Amino acid sequence: MIIPRLFNRVTPKRPLPGTLEPVKMGKPQRATVHMIGSLLLDYPDNDWFDRLEAIEAHLGGIPPQIAELFAGFIDTARATGSTELQRQYVDTFDLKRKCSLYLSYFATGDTRKRGTALVTFIEAYRAAGWDFSADELPDYLPAVLEFSAKSEDEIAEALLAAHIEGIEVLRAALEAMHSPWADLIRTITLSLPPVDAETQERVLALVSEGPPTETVGLSFLGNLPPFSPRGDS
């Protein structure tokens, strides 16, 4: 007799993203990789598409393994077209908690701790001699990558390395979705120091549980609304 399965009482543990061995590169190459990543992770409007040719001109100066990931993403973007790529971008980064482009969100989620985390980002910019003046929040990944590309201070690279757990969770989510943006996050992982076993375990916890949630007491630079996706990964 076969008993029908009515409920999924247990589910398999979600795997960690496969470990990527960092690619050896000098600071100028890393700066180029991070600047290209910053530009390609932005919203794909008309100006974004207009920049692609200029970006391609710089791919020859970075390690081939990373250049291929960028080139593949650019080819996919062109083949997809602006309207569809914009729709996919919103569906991916605006509507899924585990695909947030805001680095502190992975550790703090929608809790009161996020305001403190955002202040830490602003202090890091200032400590390296920069002011943050964009419309986005200071932990926005493209902004942090631009900071890393333009600043010669090691603070920028340390800021990215300190949030490798969030970056890896983002990579895992995008890879699980077979998202074209997964290639861009791989380039970041390849440009940073390797992830140790302890960090991998923390990544696994975040992959399984998602960012923390709390809906009260959120305020930073005015009223910061909680992240309320209409979908989830």
Describe this structure in words.
It is a single chain. With 233 residues, this protein is mainly α. 56% of the residues lie in helices and 0% in strands. The chain has helices spanning 27-40, 46-56, 64-80, 82-94, 103-108, 113-127, 141-150, 154-162, 164-176, 182-191, 197-209. Helix 9 (164-176) crosses helix 11 (197-209). The protein is globular. Mean pLDDT is 78; it is low at 1-16 and 202-233.
What descriptive keywords fit this protein?
233 residues, disordered N terminus
Average pLDDT: 78
Task: Report the sheet-strand fraction.
Answer: under 5%
| Secondary-structure content class | mainly alpha
Distance between the termini: 36 Å
Q: What letter string, H or E per element, gives the SSE order?
A: HHHHHHHHHHH
Number of helices: 11
Shape: globular
The helical percent reads 55-70%
Q: Spans of 5+ residues with little confidence (pLDDT < 50)?
A: 1-16, 202-233
Could you say how many structural domains there are in total? 1
Largest sheet: none
**How many DSSP-defined strands?**
0
Give the C-alpha Rg.
18 Å
Architecture blueprint of SSEs:
Blueprint: H1 27-40, H2 46-56, H3 64-80, H4 82-94, H5 103-108, H6 113-127, H7 141-150, H8 154-162, H9 164-176, H10 182-191, H11 197-209
Helix pairs in contact: 1-7, 1-10, 3-10, 7-8, 9-10, 9-11
Summarize the structure.
InterPro entries: DMSO/NO3_reduct_chaperone, NO3_reductase_chaperone_NarJ, TorD-like_sf. GO terms for molecular function: metallochaperone activity; unfolded protein binding. The chain is mostly helical and 233 residues long.
